[in-house]
Amino acid sequence: MGVSVDVHQVYKYPFEQVVASFLRKYPNPMDKNVISVKIMEEKRDESTGVIYRKRIAICQNVVPEILRKSLSTLVILCWKKVSILKVPNIQLEEESWLNPRERNMAIRSHCLTWTQYASMKEESVFRESMENPNWTEFIQRGRISITGVGFLNCVLETFASTFLRQGAQKGIRIMEMLLKEQCGAPLAE
């Protein structure tokens, strides 16, 4: 089955400022769930100018304790007990392609933890707004699907959907705050 969350936001700041703020967004005291972000790889294609980055984020496990306990007692294959969600942190991998010439950045993220039971993927784009070239449009689609935990698949997907929506809104608020702090008031129409 799976659940999807779509986000669309226009930042009234130039593309370069928005991307710079995005790349410095975490860790941040406004979102204590993101513990650290580390650049694993960064390279520039000299012919196109595209900058590729791979980052790993370490985040707190936000699955409620009641769901962790329920799932930790599941018996899977050979009657072996597994602790599916009893981990303190999760890892996310983010890849981005920044094209300064065309003023766009594509981002793909996925979860490296729980891959046997869950698939979490996000695709995002920052691009110059068609409405105003001094503004930046942000479009994101996130998808989570849970398998292998029976009737709890739906419960976990519902929780994940709510968490994704709230996280997206929190991310937008953090970006707006950072942009205002670093760049001043938004640009007028």
Q: Look at the structure and give the CATH class.
A: Alpha Beta
**For the CA atoms, what is the radius of gyration?**
18 Å
Uncertain regions spanning at least 5 consecutive residues: 73-82
Query: Total number of helical segments?
Result: 3
Q: What kind of oligomer do you see?
A: single chain
Largest sheet: 7 strands, antiparallel
Relative strand content: 35-45%
Class from secondary-structure proportions: alpha+beta
3D structure, described in words:
The protein is α+β, with helices and mostly antiparallel strands and 189 residues long. The protein has a single domain (3-183), classed as Alpha-D-Glucose-1,6-Bisphosphate, Chain A, domain 4. It has three helices and nine strands, in the order E-H-E-E-H-E-E-E-E-E-E-H. The chain has helices at residues 15-23, 65-72, 152-183; strands spanning 3-11, 34-44, 51-60, 75-76, 80-81, 89-99, 104-111, 118-128, 136-146. The chain has a seven-stranded antiparallel β-sheet. Strands 4-5 form a two-stranded antiparallel sheet. Strand 2 (34-44) and strand 3 form a beta hairpin. Helix 1 crosses helix 3. The longest helix has 32 residues, at 152-183. The chain is globular. The model is unreliable at 73-82 (pLDDT under 50). One of its GO terms (biological process) is phospholipid transport.
Secondary-structure map with pairings?
Elements: E1 3-11, H1 15-23, E2 34-44, E3 51-60, H2 65-72, E4 75-76, E5 80-81, E6 89-99, E7 104-111, E8 118-128, E9 136-146, H3 152-183
Antiparallel strand pairs: 1-9, 2-3, 3-6, 4-5, 6-7, 7-8, 8-9
Helix pairs in contact: 1-3
Protein name: PRELI domain-containing protein 2
InterPro entries: PRELI/MSF1_dom, Slowmo/Ups
Domain PRELI/MSF1: 1-187
